[in-house]
Amino acid sequence: MAAPAFLGLDPNTARLADPALREALLRSARSRLSSGEVDNLVQNTLTDALAASNTPLGDDDFQRWVHGIARHKIADIYRTVRAYPKPMPKSANKKTPSSFDDLQLQKQD
Question: What is the pLDDT of residues 44-89, one digit of tens each?
Fold first, then answer.
C-alpha cells in the first residue's frame, strides 16, 4: 500500500495542519471580522502559507509569519470595504422631519 502523499512533502505542511495554529488564527480573526469572513480568511491564510517558497525555520518565527499573513489579509478586507462601501437603503436617504413645520412641508411636496 502506498504512503499518503502529504508525508513526503514540505515540512511546513505538518506545522500548518496544527489545530492550535488554526484556532489561534480563528480567535484573532473573530475579534476583527464578521463571522462570515473568518473561516475564509483563515483558509486563505493557510493556503498562501503552504504555497510560499521561503518560510521561517523556527516554530516561533513560523507562527509569527503566518499571523502576519492573516493581518495583511484583514487589512486588505478593510481596504476593500472602504473602497466599495455598501449602498444605503433608499429609506435611509430620505430626510426625516425635525419639526412639525417640516412635516407639513413634506406632505405638500
Answer: 999 999 999 889 999 999 999 999 999 999 999 998 887 777 777 7
Number of domains in the chain: 1
Instruction: For residue 69, give the nearest of 86, 91, 44 by alpha carbon.
Output: 44
Q: Is residue 44 part of a domain?
A: yes
Amino acid, res. 90: K
Taken in order 95, 97, 101, 103, the sign of the CA dihedral is positive
Structural domain range at position 72: 10-108
Which residues, 6+ apart, have CB-to-CB distance to 29 below 8 Å? Answer: 37, 38, 41, 42, 70, 74
Angstrom distances, CA of residue 51 to CA of 10, 12, 23, 28, 63: 10, 10, 20, 22, 15
Alpha helices for the chain (secondary structure H): 12-16, 19-30, 35-51, 59-83, 90-93, 100-108
Assess if residue 78 is contained within a domain: yes
